[in-house]
Amino acid sequence: MVKLKTLIFDLDGTLAETERDGHRVAFNRAFAEVGVNWHWDVALYGKLLAITGGKERIRYYLDLYQQDFRPPIALDKFIAELHQTKTRYYVELLEEQGIPLRPGVLRLFNLAREQGLQLAIATTTTPENVMALLRTSIGSHALDWFDCIAAGDVVRAKKPAPDIYDYCLQKLQREPAQCLAFEDSANGVRAAVDAGIKVVVTVNDYTREEDFTGAALVLDHLGEPGQPCRVLSGDLDDFEYVDIALLQRLHGENTA
Length: 256
Ligand code: XBP
Ligand code: MG
Fold this sequence. Notes:
By secondary structure, the protein is an alpha/beta fold. It folds into two domains: 6-16 and 101-251, 3-Layer(aba) Sandwich (Rossmann fold), CATH 3.40.50.1000; 19-97, DNA polymerase, domain 1 (Orthogonal Bundle). Helix content is 41%, strand content 12%. It has helices at 19-34, 42-48, 54-65, 75-97, 105-114, 127-137, 163-172, 186-194, 244-251; strands at 6-9, 118-123, 146-151, 179-183, 198-202, 217-219, 231-233. Helix 6 links the parallel strand 2 (118-123) and strand 3 (146-151). Helix 1 (19-34) packs across helix 4, helix 3 crosses helix 4 (75-97) and helix 4 (75-97) runs parallel beside helix 6 (127-137). The radius of gyration is 18 Å and the shape is globular. The two termini are 14 Å apart. Magnesium ion (MG) binds at residues 10, 12-14, 184-185, 188. Xylulose-1,5-bisphosphate is lined by residues 10-13, 19, 23, 52-54, 87, 123-126, 129, 159, 188. One of its GO terms (molecular function) is hydrolase activity. It comes from Nitrosococcus halophilus (strain Nc4).
């Protein structure tokens, strides 16, 4: 029996609802600062989320909606600088108003640490953003809770490619069967599943209707005592919220 050793968390949409009121707002502020009249409203941003990675998302938007745009400098450089501006606005936004963690996230981090499970992050977003979210939602000490923070451009192919999970497994020297992943999107599920890792999904308004084929469990959120989670697919047994015993059962360990 392979024991569950490591919980690997996606960041955006899974730890916190960062997309609509965080990244999207930061993109729009960056567009205004560099003087382009682009605006990503809530619905358009939902479509653009099909492409992971901020730089990749800007390029996708240009290909689809701004074919006449001629950048003042080479396009790669223009996008990279625009994206740096966006990251500055995103970190500022977190520092000024914060974005809370989703239900059950902090509780699960604490339980995992108490019960000797390792924590890691595998995300498409930029490393500064991971640090800023952990720092502003929990505190700087939380950065030490994660044995691997795999983020952004450390791999060439972003989710739905499995590369970021492969990278994380390699850094941690873990087998996929020793881990469970937590994701909010179909792209994230594909990445985890293709890396051979079982995945629990907590949906949000942008991802609720996506195809989560291959996920072990799909929930509305991780739940808290007194705030039970709802199952969208899979089996929660008698559990009202996600805890380590449930994860061990899902992973295939006999905890009886
Ligand atoms: C979500 C993403 C990211 C963010 C924006 O990543 O696709 O691109 O939307 O962040 P995940 P950047 O769900 O894997 O955490 O602009 O820094 O890419
Ligand atoms: Mg996500």
